[in-house]
Write a structure and sequence with these properties.
Strand order of the largest sheet: 8-15-16-17-18-19-20-21
Helix content: 25-40%
Shape: globular
Number of helices: 19
Oligomer: single chain
Radius of gyration: 23 Å
Distance between the termini: 33 Å
Length: 536
């Protein structure tokens, strides 16, 4: 064995998460790859440029996130992140302060915020509307997006701008003009009217988000970026990431979920020659990302039965014919596909479209997937298993929605929601994500909620405890599962000789502590390609 290593870590609990769940105390890195696994005695006999004592801490394969919005997180971070807002009046007050700070800026610059949730308001439990936002400003356009991203309010000035856009006619049924409330794709019309950031500005946002994500022990993400910024220009976003990779400034492996709301935009992207898995070690194209419905909280998730006490079924972003055309074109052009579905009707429609394309062109290793899968039909998992359709899930949603889902849908549909354990028992490959900035991208919080089915800070038997995951199952969501969906199971997802030296070091072994303590564990190091990109 070549005994010269770039770095050796020893005196640790190194959980490889391989098929045998092997545990070692030492690991060696050479040229960004894992080159040694063994014990401390073996490590002591090896030569290395650096040797690091882990002091009994726990090392896992690098934690990854299968679905978030990296650039939107950065955009919200520099604007008004209103997830903690407890009232409409608080939002108005904060908005006025923001408007005052912007008084010397170009009047075309929008006041932007995201994260409001009417369920948290203590004054009036209703959505924001234009009359609220007009109290902030009638001169400067305002866009405040709900926490889910599927409903938003604009002020009168913002509404006038949106209604003046030529493309608005295609989304008019998603706009409540009286109240200035936008839903689904119509929200993105505001981005068409905002000043587009330069490539240099996008690079700054990427680096800002990357720093925060690395600090949570995350070594790689699948990120839905194309609809995240004013201008919605994929070319500038791709250019920014590629330049940063060439400059050696990316410390996070990013896989682009190429998101589109219209067939012609997706087709143009595919026709330009982009294909899933093209790219470098730190930035590459992933699946085509589409949307079929909205969210439960916004009552735009598409359901087979109406919402409780209403005759409303939610919103279908595409009818079945349009959905099938999108899937058909992407599938026949060898693209991986990921489609958003919260309601049972939405996931049924997606599964139908996938099966039709598979049976038309033949079954292949495309790793088609459905994102979210919150409320599902009884036969959906069997159909997904038969056609090898993957499940992208966000266990953290359980904590956010457990108190509202039954009131929204009724008991029977609520009992068919967040069935993570059932998915695994059916043999589905599950991939763990956060949907940040909808939720926090803290993977340890996500793992704790998957294992306990409790809110953070809560300690009960768990909401629908039969759907709890083991710590092992939850960790694999964010390691092996995410490596598989990215066609990278041979180079990441477990610690093995020859795989990428992407690791997360924790101050405690989450396999050995009380599950409600997992979110309190600290990330000590994040290692990507053998480089320590975060150290506490």
């Amino acid at each position: 064995m070549d005994k010269n290593f770039d770095r050796i870590y020893y005196n640790g609990v190194i959980r490889t998460m391989d098929d045998q769940r092997s545990v070692f105390s030492a690991i060696g890195i050479r040229d960004g790859k894992i080159a040694f696994l063994g014990d401390d005695k073996q490590a002591a006999a090896l030569m290395a440029d650096e040797k690091t004592d882990l002091k009994g801490s726990c090392m896992l394969p690098g934690l990854t996130d299968s679905h978030l919005h990296m650039l939107n997180y950065a955009f919200v971070k520099q604007s008004y992140m209103m997830t903690g807002a407890a009232s409409i009046e608080e939002i108005i007050s904060h908005g006025r302060s923001t408007a005052d700070k912007m008084k010397d800026e170009d009047p075309e610059n929008w006041i932007y915020g995201r994260g409001w949730n009417e369920d948290n308001f203590t004054d009036e439990k209703r959505p924001l509307d234009r009359f609220d936002l007009d109290k902030i400003s009638t001169e400067r356009p305002i866009l405040f997006i709900r926490v889910c991203g599927h409903k938003a309010a604009v002020n009168t000035k913002g509404l006038e701008i949106v209604m003046g856009l030529k493309q608005t006619a295609d989304y008019i049924d998603q706009i409540d003009q009286e109240n200035g409330i936008l839903t689904e794709a119509s929200i993105k019309l505001c981005y068409d009217a905002m000043n587009e950031p330069t490539v240099e500005k996008i690079k700054e946002m990427i680096l800002s988000a990357q720093k925060d994500i690395n600090a949570r022990g995350i070594t790689g993400v699948d990120s839905d970026n194309f609809l995240s910024l004013p201008g919605r220009k994929s070319a500038g976003i791709i250019k920014a990431y590629k330049e940063l990779e060439k400059e050696g400034k990316l410390t996070l492996r990013v896989r682009e979920q190429a998101s589109f709301t219209a067939f012609e935009h997706m087709k143009a992207f595919i026709d330009a020659g982009y294909r899933s898995n093209d790219g470098g070690d730190y930035y590459k194209i992933g699946p085509v990302k589409l949307y079929q419905d909205g969210s439960l909280g916004a009552r735009t998730a598409l359901m087979n039965n109406p919402y409780a006490g209403t005759d409303e079924y939610g919103t279908a972003v595409h009818d079945q014919e349009d959905l099938e055309n999108l899937v058909d074109y992407a599938y026949k052009n060898d693209m991986q596909i990921l489609i958003h579905a919260i309601g049972d009707k939405a996931s049924d429609m997606i599964c139908d479209a996938y099966i039709k394309a598979i049976e038309k062109y033949g079954k292949r290793d495309s790793r088609l997937a459905i994102n979210h899968l919150q409320i599902v039909s009884d036969d959906l998992f069997d159909r997904m298993k038969e056609y090898d359709i993957l499940a992208f899930i966000q266990p953290v949603f359980v904590a956010s929605d457990m108190d509202i889902v039954e009131n929204l849908t009724g008991k029977e549909p609520a009992d068919r929601s967040y069935l993570w354990k059932t998915m695994m028992d059916k043999g589905l490959i599950c991939c763990g994500g956060s949907d940040a900035p909808v939720e926090s991208f803290d993977v340890l919080e996500n793992i704790q909620i998957a294992v306990t089915r409790d809110k953070l800070g809560q300690k009960t038997e768990g909401w629908h405890p039969e759907e709890k995951l083991s710590v092992d199952e939850a960790v694999r969501l964010f390691t092996a599962g995410n490596a598989y969906e990215a066609f990278e199971e041979d180079i990441r997802g477990s610690l093995a000789i020859g795989k990428n030296a992407d690791m997360t070091v924790l101050d405690r072994d989450i396999f050995e502590i009380e599950p409600h303590e997992i979110s309190k564990v600290s990330v000590l190091k994040t290692i990507v390609g053998g480089r320590e990109v975060y150290v506490k």
